[in-house]
What we know:
- The protein is 44% helix and 20% strand.
- By secondary structure, it is an alpha/beta fold.
- The strands form four sheets. It has a six-stranded parallel sheet, with helices on both faces. It has a four-stranded parallel sheet with strand order 7-6-8-9, with helices on both faces. Strands 10-14 form a two-stranded antiparallel ribbon.
- β8, α8 and β9 form a beta-alpha-beta unit.
- α2 crosses α10 and α7 packs across α8.
Amino acid sequence: MKLLKILATTTAVAVLLAAPAYAQTRIALVVKSLGNGFFDAANKGAQEAAAELGDVEVIYTGPTAATAEAQIEVVNSLIAQQVDAIAISANDPDALVPALQKAMERGIKVISWDSGVAPEGRQLHLNPSDIGLIGETIIKLAADYLPEGGDVAILSAASTATNQNAWIEAAKAVIPEKFPNINLVSVVYGDDDSVKSTDEAKGLIASYPDLKAIIAPTTVGVVAAAQVVTDQGLIGKINVTGLALPSEFKQFIDNGASQAVALWNPIDLGYAAVMLANDLVEGGEAAPGATLSMGRMGELTLDDTNSGAMAPPFTFDKSNIEEFSKIY
């Protein structure tokens, strides 16, 4: 009996010695939907941040369909798993608030990134770039190749997507002052679904015979629109532009369906989101004027809504698309 007690004690000590000296932080990176190249790239950056921090595990998750209801199920599951932090790109700014409030009540740190949550549903929000600058950029991408102006249309993601709506409003605001020859004829929504985005692009072309450009500030919509222009033999007549992943969009720069697109680096965005979430877990304060760490991306200073911007968007065209398509 004494020998058994000694063995049991020895085993217990061995287990304790084998265990890590720290409790690993678990941060959930929740995306709008899985199978989206933009978010897959963001996950690469998130995993980079976890490796750099050393004591962090990133749980990459999201629904198969880009709906608020599906994301709520994901959030509730993460609450049950008692993760330390949730970093979410939201499908709806308001619908997710109750679930995320419940997470915060349980001591889980909550941030939104890319597409925001209403302030009461998170502690801070990371914008990929300055909203006004993005709005101006997406219009400029079209206007630069329309010296005489003309009709343009916007193919967005979901009508409830916080980031898309903010960019579109900023774009509308800048047109009269800086791009008076640009006529925005319509805004339609493809819900970040390739089939619906394709149908919406076809509808725009059919409805507006003088259409000169389709602007899609969504990586799903911009590919769908460029494919429609290619398939319908409209290269050189309708320019497709917006926000695109170089790896997914290179073929349309090459074939002339698009002259240029822009995007921030989603790898950097996922990286920064995890760094910020970890800073909160470690005791960082989310308050107006506070400064938090984004690791190699620098520091984020929060505004009055506890939001901040990561970096300006970057333009891709024939001169650099080849290089960046090999990266993300």
